[in-house]
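just leaving the lab so this will be short. what follows is a protein written twice so to speak, once as letters and once as structure tokens for the fold. can you read through it and tell me how you think this chain folds. thanks a lot i owe you, the record is right below.

___
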Amino acid sequence: MTCAKWSRNGRWQPDMAFGRLQRSPGAQPMSEINMTPLIDVMLVLLVIFIITAPLMNARLALDLPSAEGAAAASDVPAVLQVAVDAQGQLYLDDQPATAEQVAARAKATAQRQPQTEVQLRADERVPYGQVAELIGLVQAAGLSRIGFVTEVPGR
């Protein structure tokens, strides 16, 4: 492929990569749109969406009880999130955990920062006794600020 050529009138005429500097007498303008770059970009966006979509809803699914006085989550700097699902499985920051792991993490957190708030999320089908045991476990570790996370009615 040449980058320049001799014109009919004997002058050296450079060609451009995507067009001509001067239009020759019989040449027609290019009227087609190259769709390949558009399709490539759309496929890349589709792959990104397919990868990120499942991550957007990866939180633990609980049926939280609703309460009228429920407020928005406070902006407390130190928070320990503990959850109990309908089967009684404990979760520590949305990761499955045992009661011993929750107690050890609560004790370590209480030693570092005793004003840490424990945000407790429990499925509405969890027996009250199991929630009370979890509260006792966290209090025995040295954390006394416990907040119950609920849903606001109508959402």
About this structure: The mean pLDDT is 79. The first strand starts at residue 4 and ends at 6. The helical segments are 36-56, 99-112, 128-141. The longest helix spans residues 36-56.
